[in-house]
Amino acid sequence: MSDWWAEGLLFENCNCTAVCPGHIHFSQKCTHEVCHGFWAIRFEGGRVSAGGAGRAGVEGRAEDVDLGGVDVVVVYETPQVMVDGGWKQVIIVSDRATGAQRRAVEEILTGMRGGPWEILATFVGDGRPTRIARIRIEEAPGRKSVTVKGVLKGAVEAIRGRNRAEPVTFENIYN
């Protein structure tokens, strides 16, 4: 059981053509020999609880940490078959986050606090030091974008199917 929870926005993008096969299942080959991508995350709510030691020896906290309002981008590079591991990863936290928020987000996104990121962390072979930067995440109907000043700009747009009023959705996907 994790000692944290979160809600908000998460979107991702990579250099694959259209939909990344590796994100449908990590054992499938990505479009290119190396996958370069990011997850953009806006914590609209969330908390890391005081006390309790989480995973991997994380010490308990003297106080709860509110994650609301924190923006983060996780930039990664993976092999063509993601399940092979050895991912390179850097976490970039908004320059508006407090020190306690930054530490809490690092602990979550490196898997030290359990939850789904604990599984993803098993694929990371080269976790780079966390960076602090100005992050701007924007959301409009059918489009989401992120800018990390001096690092990256990226966007995702909904894919329209036969019913032009509704975006294409995927079901029954499991990494």
Question: What is the compact description of this entry?
Answer:
12% of the residues lie in helices and 45% in strands. The chain contains 3 helices and 10 strands; from the N terminus they run E-H-E-E-E-E-H-H-E-E-E-E-E. The strands form 2 sheets. Strands 1, 2, 3, 4, 5, 6 and 7 form a 7-stranded mixed sheet that branches. A 3-stranded antiparallel sheet has the order 8-9-10, with no helix packed on it.
Give a description of the structure.
With 175 residues, the protein is mainly beta. The protein has one domain (4-157). Helix content is 12%, strand content 45%. It has three helices and ten strands. It has helices at 21-24, 99-109, 116-121; strands at 4-14, 29-48, 65-66, 70-81, 87-94, 124-127, 131-133, 135-140, 143-148, 152-157. The strands form two sheets. Strands 1, 2, 3, 4, 5, 6 and 7 form a seven-stranded mixed sheet that branches. It has a three-stranded antiparallel sheet with strand order 8-9-10, with no helix packed on it. A hairpin with a 5-residue loop joins strand 4 and strand 5 (87-94). The protein is globular. It starts with a strand and ends in an 18-residue tail after the last strand. Mean pLDDT is 85; it is low at 52-62.
Low-confidence stretches: 52-62
Give the overall silhouette: globular
The largest sheet is: 7 strands, mixed
What is the oligomer described by this structure? Answer: single chain
Q: How many individual domains?
A: 1
Write the layout of secondary structure elements.
Blueprint: E1 4-14, H1 21-24, E2 29-48, E3 65-66, E4 70-81, E5 87-94, H2 99-109, H3 116-121, E6 124-127, E7 131-133, E8 135-140, E9 143-148, E10 152-157
